[in-house]
Write a structure and sequence with these properties.
- 43% of the residues lie in helices and 16% in strands.
- The protein contains five helices and five strands, in the order E-E-H-H-E-H-H-H-E-E.
- Strands 3-5-4 form a three-stranded antiparallel sheet, covered by helices on one side.
- It is globular.
Amino acid sequence: MSGYETSTVICMGTVVTQLVHGAKAKKALSAVNRELRRMEAQLSFHSSSSQLALLNRAAGKNPVKVGQDLLSLLKLSRELAISTGGAFDVTVGPLVREWATCLKSGTIPTPSRIETLLALVNGREIEVDEGRRTAFLPKVGQSVDLGG
């Protein structure tokens, strides 16, 4: 297409394709890609070095200092878990990982395994300390996946 700039990047476990038109399209794409990478550094479930990954690894052990974006999302996620009676719950990370592992091996999780992991899913338990800018998951094995 004439007059358009495109960009495709893999970010936060998915493919992001952008199509931008205008005199500053290249500059806009560059700015958006920088912002995607900045967000990925905080929020990605798929990156072992993101702030979210650090929070997930510290589950049941200690609070983790996080950036304002992640702090705000965790606070909102907790509120949504409460207001939806758990229908929307970002602490599904253990189930997401289990299903991904099973799909790779061509199996499905056993009912007892699913039951065990469901005991870790409770977004109402996410602790957010805005003053200290920390977040905490109280149970070992809990993990947040913001993909919802």
